[in-house]
Amino acid sequence: MRKILYGLFFLSLLGGQLFRIPLYPGITIYPHDVFLIGLVFLELITQWKTLKTQRFALGKPLLVFIGVLVFSFLLTMASHTLPEQLEAFAYLVRFILYSGVYFLVAAANRKHIFLYGLYMLGVGVGVLGLMQFVWYPNLRNLSYLGWDPHYYRLFSTFLDPNFTGLFLLLSFLLGMYYVQQKKLVMLILQTILFISIILTLSRSTYVAFMGSIILYAILRKSWKVLLVFFLFVGILFWAPIPERERTPILRQESSLARITNWTESITLIRKAPVLGYGFNFLASQSNEIPNSQTVRSHALAGVDNSFLFVLATSGIVGGVAFLFLLWSMTTLGLSSMRRKKSRTLGELYLLSLAAICIHSCFVNSFFYPWILLWLWTFTGVIDSKGKNSLLVS
Q: Residue 24 carries which DSSP code?
């Protein structure tokens, strides 16, 4: 039963935004939510003693951050309408549910299965993205549903090239762990992911990719790795991508819109600096965020920066708790690096975390459902404390 649920869970993630089910204005459920709820109840019933007694490296910082989000929600909910309360509550429940994946994976045996699942999921998203790029390159006909009109960009089943790009990048970084085991097969799969990343034309993903390459060079103390950086930049600017002139890399319109969004978000933060507007009541402030009507349904309340999003929804208190969580995750990765058996995975975890943080400066990607699930699954694998050791093969 457990294997079937986990299999269905990973398979359902491949559907991306294509199978979103609107339950109520502003509230959406995905098939993977259903399977995840089933997994949570199953693990609580069968693994309660293990979960209760095991020590989790991120237990305290994660619960502190969640506690701040809950408190900010309760403190401000009275000033909002019932529909706004339901929407914010659903968002809070989803974040807590996804964070629970960390505890489930950290307490599980044979953790390498989760890594295989993540990587093959990324490859699947890349393959579907390449098919979409060839046969369905224009998303303009879905603009009336709130999706941005991307043209000749790879957006796969996520219907967004930025989030798709980061997901593919995380998968590509994880693939570096398997390259040494199955060189020919992995070279093909890594090439698929690399080409897919290029075709997203996502500048935030490109910057995150470059940042992860530089960090890898620092961790390995191998400046030869920087050759990959220059190769990537070369391909980035001179690759013959069809209709590329219609979506130029150095486009200014979206850059100016993003800067405006950040400015307006900072204005909101100044109005409620301590605990913010409540997690997540930003939708009620949509009239103060440019283009938020389009962004509201599909871009996490319209704040194009995860750090600003935390400050706007939970204030300075939430910001401090969030930084404490990120620092604890970094410490976990460094601790994994010090162990011989998990050194490579520890490095790749830090690269992934850095890529997410860099990407989150331009898009609210940290709180994107698929990124959250990817991150907490990998974090659960890295956390090898307790009676279940880190098993990789």
A: E
